[in-house]
Amino acid sequence: MIARRVVGALAALMLVTTACGSDDDSSSSSADDENPAASEPVEESAEADDTASTADGASADSDAEPSEATVVRVGVPLDLSGPAAISNIGLSELSAMELALEEVTASGMLGETTIEMIPIDTKGDKQEAVAGVLKLIEQDDVDAIVGFTLTPSFLAAGPQAVEAGLPVIAVGVAAPGITEVGDNVFRIIPQVSSLYAANDAMIAETLGATSAAYLYTSDSETTVGIHEARLAALEDAGIETKSVQSNTTADTDFRAQLTEIQNSGADIMVISGFPGQFAGQFLQAEEIGLDIPVLSTDGSGRNEVLDQAGSAMQCVIYTASWAAQNETGRNPHFVEAVQTELDDEADLYYAAGYDGMWMFSTALADAGSADPDAIVEALNNITDFEGAFGVYEYDDNREPDISGINLQIQDNEVIPWTPDTQCER
Amino acid sequence: MQQTINGLASGSIYALLGLGVTLIWGVLHVLTFTHAQVLTWGAFGSLIAINRGYPVPVAILVGMAVAAGLSVLIDSTVLEMLRRRGASEYAFVVATIGLAFMLESILRNRTRARVEPYSRDGFPRGPIELLGQNVPKLQLAVLATSLIAMAGLAIWLNHTRAGRGMKAVAYSPETATLLGINPRFIYAVAYTVSGMLAALAGVFVAVSTASVSYSSGDRLLLTAFAVIILGGMGSVPGAVVGGLILGVIEVYATVHVSSKFSEVVAYLVILVVLLVRPSGLFGAKEATRV
Amino acid sequence: MTGSQGNAVLEVSDLTVRYGAAVALRGIDLVIGEQEAVAVLGPNGAGKTTLLRTISGLLKPAAGQIELDSHSMVGRPAYRIARAGFVHAPEGRSMIAPLTVTENLQLGAGRRARSDVAAGIDEMIELFPSLRARMGTKAGLLSGGEQQMVAIARALMAQPKVLAIDEPSMGLAPVVVDAVLEALRKVIDSGTSLLLAEQNARLALAVADRAYVLVHGEVVKSGNSDEFGDELIESYLT
Ligand SMILES: Nc1ncnc2c1ncn2[C@@H]1O[C@H](COP(=O)(O)OP(=O)(O)O)[C@@H](O)[C@H]1O
Ligand SMILES: [Mg+2]
After folding, report:
1. Which of B182, B264, C113, C115 has its CA 20 to 30 A from that of A152?
2. Does A140 lie in the same domain as A10?
3. Chain B: nearest CA to C76, how far in angstroms?
4. pLDDT for A21-31, tens place per residue?
5. pTM to 2 decimal places
6. Distance from the CA of B79 to the center of ligand 1, in angstroms?
């Protein structure tokens, strides 16, 4: 009886769902057009002909003339859908990789060789990631893997690629320990925790701080890792810890934590969190009259954050692994290319995808063949690689030695920060 | 002192939410899992009005209207169908969970999962000196508005025809019917009021963070349930007191234990109340509601 | 039938009601005239409550007609039948326990104007003087007799055309029953028609002009109250 009623309720629900769903489809179809890769990578669409040409053209090639010698197949597992906030990140990475591949092809640096990208959607799901990567290895017979958006997807599926002996360039993942998975794993986005740790002490010293209070997001490995590294680095530099407060990704009210920090009398506040919560944190800090200097986290200068809380963020300093303001390496060109080719503003994820594909192509050109060992060796030996993250190369642990850039928010703008930068609050 | 105000301010938002849930429970004996979504939709309603340049009070009313309309729609379609079939309480829970998912995914698609900026222009800003303390004006406004809304609700429930009708339907829909009261109308009124309160809470959450997204209300559903379990299921004064207490407990947990601890306060409150005093602070018997 | 067709306030014809497959009422015809008091008598389980619940719209009849003031009530929602003037004080008094006596009475008043409601409450206090001291008490705390009075008064607040009461004497002390009957006589005098469902035939016949006897869902006898001698009562109702 109960079962029947529940089934009835669900049926009713589905009726309503489909009714609303169809209504929804018609109006959101334009959104799909802008993101062709979300549903079908080869969907024909005017704005997305770069997608169409790489994916479509390449697969046509491999069908028609299966000459292994000239086509290098690169598996591109990315979290294109799934946990919603992430989906745009994966898409950005994909389109930047396509952009980079076009540039590589146009440069002629690969000679006769062409690269075919085989994107798959790992959906922010570990099982999808494992299945997808296995398919790339076993069915698509890829020569290398350049991809991965989220750390969990990488940690689940990365080992499959390592076992298959393929070179792996992790583009999106930012957590520590990524390259420890195997000797053939390289990364693009630097371990942010070490990046902050390297810069925080210098910034704190410049500000004349002797003590610090911390606010960090405690339900994400990434922010916890960043927070711990920053706290340790600042303590090593002799900065006393006055208060440690945390919040979760679901929190909207940070006043209790901020009040504690205010009462602690610390000289500076160090925030390790996510862009979605910065606006609330800074506005509420302003509300309660907390006006000590703030060292924040990358993402603080995003447009939407500044739109929401720009004036409450005057003089906030943060370190970014990538920023449009960075004038080194291939970055100026990259920022412009994203603007002209992708009609969007460059960001960290575009940069990661872009450098990932350029890095692989450079290694492929250096190695002169798609042999996995040769490519791994080439990656290890690259010097002064010029990318969107500046000029860098891999250290012994296959970590990029990206130094990052310090930035400050002044009058709703993000400017590069140096110890000489003045800021009026 | 400032921390107590922090607690009361977030507690008053919890109370607004708890009131909505408790009202629906009291009148319809349905635990509405859609409530957090109603809050979010209401916040988006007000956002649209703000972005179109309407003044803040009008925008809040628009948000309330959106949330009320959505609530009534849910009640008069899916829930009414279930009532007609004499479905079990269980079926209502499943249905509202399903609806909550549906509402969330519609919003997620429509907003493309983006966090939308919520302008604070027109809302109180900055601190005000009060008893030697710097108290944020916004918090005071939230606290005052919530208390006014709650007082209004109490007066309305106790001193108007519709309020009495609601109590009658809550107590016995059949008796109410025999007295010429249309229970479906009362259900719609209950959902309207509950939606309006949720939207008010939604606006406050959105202003606090200057942003709103499809998932803005997610965490607050559990909080709302904790509030009504603490206050007593179906009890209006219980929801008010329960909300304020929960807000203050959360802040004190942050301050005196650890800010990590505040995350589990809602769960702990639910557990402890269910173990120690299942009827909550104000719940007499299961039967007394609203 | 005694009631003249011309001024029937309530007319039930050929009414059949089922609970699933079980027939609870079969082919019931019943008429109530203006200012008339009619009793429906019958042993426990005869179908009296079912009849009242069907007329008031809580149950849907399988067949038959129900007309109030010549308007069909079949298929109307119960709250609209109440508003149309058939107000049913159900078995067990059904107080809204958390509300006070005054609030219960206000509930009954429906859409009467505020001042009118106050006047109505005064009338009810006049009708049931023992309620005067209890007006501020929560209805759930009243004695059975007081609750019955509130139930009747609450129904009267709506100024019904027909007041239907299910088992008003049930569980009440004889003195209290007398007070209730006394009040009901006044109600009839003031122009309201009455439909009493009662097991206690003697009591009901003391106020009713006419009576129907229901057994196993069928009317086995109807007539003026004075036609019901003691033996008749004994033979049907024990
Ligand atoms: N809800 C119900 N479902 C099934 N049968 C019922 C229900 N209510 C009453 N009955 C049956 O209908 C018949 C008439 O009951 P009722 O109208 O309550 O009689 P009365 O009020 O005269 O005692 C009885 O046989 C009773 O068992
Ligand atoms: Mg009965």
Report:
1. B264
2. yes
3. 12
4. 333 333 333 33
5. 0.76
6. 29
